[in-house]
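Case 325 in the screening queue. Each case pairs one protein sequence with one candidate compound; here the compound is oxa(dethia)-CoA. For every case the pipeline is the same: read the inputs, emit a complex structure as tokens, and attach any notable structural observations.

Predict complex for case 325.
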Amino acid sequence: MSVVRSVVRGSGSYLPSRIVTNDELAGMVDTSDDWIVQRTGIRERRIAATGEVTSDLALHAARGALKAAGLEPQAIDLIVLATATPDNTFPASAVTVQASLGITKGAAFDMQAVCSGFVFALSTADSLLRTGGFARALVIGAETFSRIIDWKDRGTCVIFGDGAGAVVLEATPSSGTHQDRGVLATRIHSDGRYKEKLYVDGGPSSTGTVGCLRMEGREVFRHAVQMITGAVEEVLADTGFTAADIDWFVPHQANKRIIDACAHKLGLGPEKIVHTVERHGNTSAASIPLAIDEAVLDGRIKPGDLVMVEAMGGGFTWGAALIRW
Ligand code: UT7
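Case 325 output:
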């Protein structure tokens, strides 16, 4: 059976230049390098420069992905930008990226599913490429969480960082078997009963302010492993693969302990896990495409590899996707 698949043509990423170490944070709040490393695996994170906004980060990552794909911006007719930290309430930061790239056709919009944003954006772009008449999509995750952090709250300020990553997807006629390249299956979920476990205490319609991130970390942790492994198992069942078939596990980089617990529960060896949390911290929707690009650039992820991505975050939202590179 002939079908259309969304095949990854290239990836790109961008990190702001300023590195903030755990020791620097220990000078600001009551914490220590030891505590942060033991509880999260994080050693440092990047923070955007004054005046550097989410769409700037996204634009760098998008340009990198286009270069890797060997495509001019005009080849793109869909931009889905996953972010919870847009430049402005509106318009979508995606249209700023679109304009900066000189693209005047197609559609560009933001997607808000917090840390699960990239999986939601990938799933949405995949659907639109397969059924919506679009040819090529830029799927971007970009965040400046440093702008919504309460820098006096040691429970959150040590965790998050800024960054962006992107992939170019191309609608490609395929055989319809799971040997095809491209996005093979995605699953996305939300359950708003948990919306107060991880939220921002402001917004245009409530306080008229931007607000700060608030998190019951232990509660989020408690749900994360079950939700993530559940979504991964659904995607495996959808495609008929088993965990042993996965070449690379590229999880949302929230906490090394969550990543390792998920991998253990799924029976995935440490050699298959792509970790960036140590150097990036939790960059929310940007973490998966940042990790993908690192593993592509250093030669780990190669054409034909089966790559499982997953995420869980505020909402709660969660999901997974299986891609043959
Ligand atoms: O990406 C979106 C999803 N987000 C996540 O997945 C985050 C999930 N949660 C986590 O990663 C972890 O829950 C945290 C890293 C946020 C916290 O680790 P934890 O092991 O769950 O610690 P805890 O919240 O249970 O706190 C343990 C202790 C507390 O002190 P007491 O009450 O035992 O005296 C905290 O006050 O650690 C204290 N604590 C800290 N101590 C030093 C909390 N933050 C810090 C800190 N430095 N930065």
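Case 325 observations:
- The radius of gyration is 18 Å.
- Residues 31, 35-36, 39-40, 115, 154-155, 158-159, 217-218, 220-221, 224, 254-255, 258, 282, 313 surround oxa(dethia)-CoA (CB under 6 Å).
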